[in-house]
Design brief:
The chain is mainly alpha-helical. The protein has six helices and two strands; from the N terminus they run H-H-H-H-E-E-H-H. A two-stranded antiparallel sheet has the order 1-2. It comes from Sedimentitalea xiamensis. This is MarR family transcriptional regulator.
Length: about 150
């Protein structure tokens, strides 16, 4: 790899990591009290999925350990945002579903996030966002397949 390619790669990942840190900071400040980004992410996924998922499936989807996902799910269950039940077909597994309170919490989070996200997109411009999205998706896809 040439020095130019190395410098380009370092600059790209530096910008992505810095943007990630700044975005997480902003999201954390506007999420409803007590909700973490990981909580919102799981609730959002379960709301879109429309069906139960096992903790192992969720851990795989979010690229975290089963222990980390169990911790997140325990907090969500304690808050009443998810229902966790035994898998009727395999007693060793559990299944997770979003609760009505979880749907409401997700909606509150989206209401809190929307103005900030819209502001950032507005400042960048829709055309720039549409241009960069395919590149970010391809980068994510390539990174996912290299685990």
């Amino acid at each position: 790899m040439s020095d130019d390619t190395n410098a380009l790669a370092v600059a790209l990942f530096s910008e992505i990591l810095t943007a990630d840190q700044l975005l997480r900071n902003r999201l954390s400040r506007v999420l409803p009290k007590g909700m973490e980004i990981s909580h919102f992410s799981v609730l959002n996924h379960l709301a879109f999925a429309g069906e139960e998922r096992s903790p192992a499936q969720l851990a795989g989807m979010f690229h975290v350990t089963r222990g980390a996902m169990t911790n997140t799910l325990n907090k969500l269950e304690w808050a009443g945002y998810v229902h966790i039940r035994p898998d009727w077909d395999d007693a060793r597994r559990k299944m997770v579903a979003i609760s009505p309170a979880g749907r409401q919490a997700r909606e509150q989070a989206i209401s809190a996030l929307t103005p900030m996200v819209n502001q950032v997109v507005g400042e960048l411009g829709s055309d720039k966002v549409r241009t960069v999205l395919p590149v970010l998706r391809e980068l994510r896809t390539r990174l996912e397949t290299r685990d």
